[in-house]
Amino acid sequence: MISISTTKKAHVKGSLPGPESRRIIDIGRNYEAQVQSLQAPIVWKSAKGCIVTDVDGNTYLDWTSGVLVTNVGHCHPKLVKSIQQAAETLLNCYEFPTEARIDLAKRMVEILPRHLHRAFFLTTGSEAVEAAIRVAKKYTGKYEIVSFFGGFHGRTGDARSAGGIKRIKEGYGPSAPGFIHAPYPYCYRCPFKSEPNTCGFMCLDFLDTTVKSLSTGSLAGVIVEPYQGTAGFIFPPDGYLKELEKWTQKMGMVFILDEVQSSFGRTGKFFSLEWEGLTPDLVCVGKGIGSGIPISAVMATDEVLKNLSDGDLGSTFAGNPFACSAALAVIDIMQSEDLVNNANKIGKIIKSCLLEIMNKSSHLGDVRGRGMVMGMEFVKEKKTKEPAPELVNELILRCAQNGLIIGKVGIYGNVVRVAPPLIMTEDEAYESLEIMSKCIMELE
């Protein structure tokens, strides 16, 4: 049963969009490229913690974390203070070392498993993926990368080619050569029509068939996400990633774990690899590492870096001292406020309530995830599992009208993203769940 505090934080007056939001949106239609995904008609003005305020003065609880970025909450005062001080000191320094960059490299190596020895900093998740793929190719002297249906690793050259979502590729011509795609364990919609409890990782067994049929014999590495966010927050069954790692090692390939979304506490561990004790050769980190400030990283073993020379990796803003200062503050905040444990605690509350709602709803077909990241997959009928993207569009609008910001993802556009900032309180969780429950029941 969902029960909340009497002190509510979400408040929306009138219909959406409000007059000021409408004015700004109309201007944007005239001048801004209309290429980003459309969500609720809200123009954000400010945000603090888990609360977003729009230009019309309406307040909302945030289930997006600014799209899985603000793990420590919007505008955390310690983070704001750190970047203010950094902005007064040094904004960028390409190629020369800075104290902030070296300190962050040390901290990252210290908080990751001991087999990862080095850090290299970049700006975006796509950059981190591109760099990791280059390292794998240089180390092995080979060029083929195995990736997965539904994967999303970015929109740049190799990152886009490694992805397995049609709409990310459609209309842009051929992908880069050397990428081999295989099924990912999307258990709610199993490509082999199997059941998770009895399939025995059939999709993993199919990897042998895939590479035997498609590889030229130049296998360099495997890149995989601990969960597929853009595809619809698809989580593999327990044990799958460890078995995939063993298969990768058996094949003599580099294991690349794309933790751009899943790191920095999002799944209820500081890094998602901790759930199964994974030992990847390369880890891509992004989004939550800067909690709103653009920065990414590639963490690597000494072994895979041994064939690289000076200048083999680089980027204008790599190791930017401003961004590195932000990341150092984020690590401090997460450790001092025990946000990983809070993600587990609040995540369990949210998932338990969502499962209750699923049992009452004829359209909520699946709730999956862990920690503070979940997917709610909506269907027209539970028996047929036919995707219901139009229903999700309506749910986004209804939730916003009641003070909850949600977003949609998924191969079919029918999955609601559940990814609040890790600092969310119990009262905020229950208030947001009451809004979600109300809106879903209205749609019934």
Write the layout of secondary structure elements.
Elements lengths: L18 H13 L12 E5 L2 E4 L4 E4 L2 H4 L8 H11 L11 H13 L6 E5 L2 H16 L3 E5 L8 H6 L3 H4 L9 E4 L19 H13 L4 E6 L15 H11 L3 E6 L22 E4 L10 E5 L1 H4 L15 H16 L2 H22 L3 E7 L2 E6 L10 H13 L2 E2 L1 E3 L5 E4 L7 H18 L1
Parallel strand pairs: 3-13, 5-6, 5-7, 7-8, 8-9
Antiparallel strand pairs: 1-2, 2-3, 4-10, 9-10, 11-12, 12-15, 14-15
Helix pairs in contact: 3-11, 4-11, 12-14, 13-14
Characterize the structure shown.
There is one protein chain. With 444 residues, this protein is of the alpha/beta class. The chain folds into two domains: 19-72 and 338-443, Aspartate Aminotransferase, domain 1 (Alpha-Beta Complex), CATH 3.90.1150.10; 78-336, Type I PLP-dependent aspartate aminotransferase-like (Major domain) (Aspartate Aminotransferase, domain 2). The protein is 37% helix and 16% strand. The strands form three sheets. A seven-stranded mixed beta sheet has the order 4-10-9-8-7-5-6, with helices on both faces. Strands 1-2-3-13 form a four-stranded mixed beta sheet. The longest helix has 22 residues, at 339-360. The radius of gyration is 22 Å and the shape is globular.
